[in-house]
Amino acid sequence: MLIGYVIVLAFMFVAFEWTERDKVIDTSQAVLDLVFEEEIIPLTQQPENIPPPPPETPSITEVLQIVDDDANVEQTTIASTEDIGEKVEVKYVPVVVEEEPDEVTIFEVVENMPEFPGGQAALMQFLSKNIKYPTIAQENGTQGRVTIQFVVNRDGSVVDPVVIRGVDPYLDKEALRVISQMPKWKPGMQRGKTVRVKYTVPVMFRLQ
């Protein structure tokens, strides 16, 4: 029995040694053996959008009226100068441009500008005599120059006064009041005719 156990153990030892020698791991081809599977993306086709056909336009049929040979047709004859024997005269008709009448036109600069009766000195005297300094402006110490623009008509009357440069609402209102009360001016002249002219007058407000 002992000899049998020794033989069996010997066979088992040889068997284990033989299997261990056959187990060899080769790592040289480990990277090369990788297989990459490419993902195949299926091709998709989008359906083509075919525009609808345009609506059919109704065909227009031309109606031709056929006139009989026996129908009465008015004939117009044009006589030439050779048939008549008369000369044709060509007349030049000048184009007349209508100018705006002087009664409506407002000039800014004319040959003879409008003038206050008595001249510039009389105008300054009229303003200083008729201006009433507003009480509120005096209390607030407001002063300055108000520029008024107006139109001198053909008859010398003063119309449409406006403030083009103001200082204070009370001073502006007083300046407009005095300008509106001015007497008739000597109207402006252009080409020997009286015309409407714009005129500008400064009204000075000064506290003493």
Itemize the secondary structure elements and their pairings.
Elements: H1 2-22, H2 81-84, E1 106-107, H3 120-130, H4 135-140, E2 144-152, E3 158-165, H5 169-180, E4 188-190, E5 193-205
Parallel strand pairs: 1-5
Antiparallel strand pairs: 2-3, 2-5, 4-5
Any descriptors?
208 residues; alpha+beta; TolA/TonB C-terminal domain; five-stranded mixed β-sheet; 26% helix
Describe the model.
This protein has 208 residues and is α+β, with helices and mostly antiparallel strands. It has a domain at 106-205: TolA/TonB C-terminal domain. It is built from 5 helices and 5 strands, in the order ααβααββαββ. The chain has helices spanning 2-22, 81-84, 120-130, 135-140, 169-180, and strands at 106-107, 144-152, 158-165, 188-190, 193-205. Strands 1, 2, 3, 4 and 5 form a 5-stranded mixed beta sheet that branches. Residues 20-36 have low confidence and may be disordered.
Mean pLDDT: 76
Helix proportion: 25-40%
The protein's oligomeric status is: single chain
**CATH architectural group of the domain at 106-205:** 2-Layer Sandwich
Shape: elongated
The biggest beta sheet reads: 5 strands, mixed
Global Rg: 58 Å
- H-E string: HHEHHEEHEE
What is the strand tally? 5
The number of helical segments is: 5
Indicate the structural class.
alpha+beta
- Estimate the strand proportion: 15-25%
- Using the coordinates shown, work out and report the CATH topology of the domain at 106-205: TolA/TonB C-terminal domain
- What is the CATH C level class of the domain at 106-205, in words? Alpha Beta
